[in-house]
Amino acid sequence: MRIGELAQRAGTTTRALRYYESRGLLPARRGGNGYRAYDEEDLRLLRQIRVLQDFGFGLEDTRPFVECLRAGHPEGDSCPASLEVYRAKLAELDAMVARLSEVREEVAGQLARAEAARDALAGAGGGEPRCELVRAEE
Amino acid sequence: MRIGELAQRAGTTTRALRYYESRGLLPARRGGNGYRAYDEEDLRLLRQIRVLQDFGFGLEDTRPFVECLRAGHPEGDSCPASLEVYRAKLAELDAMVARLSEVREEVAGQLARAEAARDALAGAGGGEPRCELVRAEE
DNA sequence: GCTGGCGTTGACGCCGGGGTGAAGGTCTAC
DNA sequence: GTAGACCTTCACCCCGGCGTCAACGCCAGC
User: Fold this and answer.
1) pLDDT: is B1 or B122 the higher one?
2) d(CA B76, nearest CA chain A) in Å
């Protein structure tokens, strides 16, 4: 199988495949004409890469999985190094969620405060706050 | 007040202030010598910018707040446009947290699955799983 | 009048990750 | 024979929010 077919079957581009090879992630054998030659196994490796990429893993993070498959293990995550990547990614995701949630609460607090201040002014200057929704603003 | 003093008092750099001006965010009057001239009000605007930046707001997001202050309102978030930015940011943060949490659960599931597979193999090939912790792995 | 420190403008660098684009040549398939 | 797929190498891009010169102007103190 040549590069175009592999790219098409994996839903990626020939450019990406050459890029992976340049990173040492998916080396290819060569035919006599210099063309890259791939087999079904390479398609498996490539699919593993793309699944992880869809999870937001960096290319380097996919390397242990690919090497695990290449070493003959049944799954890309059958090796300790892959599990470590999972764990590191989990920790990273947890940290991001925690940070974002903190900011979210800060912003929510600011919004609530600002809305309360606005309503207090509206109530003082414009009559009954209860009727606020009745007045057409536009 | 000249640019260096303002930068220092706001804990930023002259380069950042010139950049804000180039973006039209914090225009400065000029003295006869061409030097930028700032006052205490500019310091308030600048502090507003920096608070929002620390929340992770982009520069453009700070514009409504700055213009609100410049229009004479007591707070940068005393204007509807600022509240809209808060709301948009909240939605954005919620979406990010949701997306990250989804991925987190996917990865956690993969990790659990992979660990279970590993343990099943260890149990089948290495004897009693109960004693696994007793065997020195290294 | 000279040095040093502030100021001015403009242009380019960077950071990172995952590629893409173009140019110029070779090979294959119909 | 010609279109299309393939090869290589080098450069570029995207994003924001500045940093880093370069080359100059302005002003105070000595």
Assistant:
1) B1
2) 9
CA angle at B59 for the pair B53 and B64, rounded to the nearest 5°: 100
Which tokens hold the place of B67? 């213009």
Helix locations, B1-138, DSSP H: 3-10, 14-22, 40-54, 59-70, 80-126
The residue whose CA lies nearest the C1' of nucleotide D15 is B58
Decide if B103 and A93 are in contact by the 8 Å CB cutoff.
yes
Tokens of B39: 């006052």
Query: Is-contact B101 A97, C-beta < 8 A?
Result: yes
- Among B87, B71, B16, which residue's Cα sits nearest to residue B49? B16
3-state secondary structure of A57: coil
What pTM was computed for the model? 0.85
Residue B34's SS3 state is coil
Interface contact B114-A82, CB threshold 8 A:
yes
CB A89 within 8 A of CB A65: no
Q: Could you read off the pLDDT of A13-58 as tens digits, one per residue?
A: 999 999 999 999 999 999 999 999 999 999 999 999 999 999 999 9
Per the CB < 8 A criterion, the answer to whether B81 and B99 are in contact is no
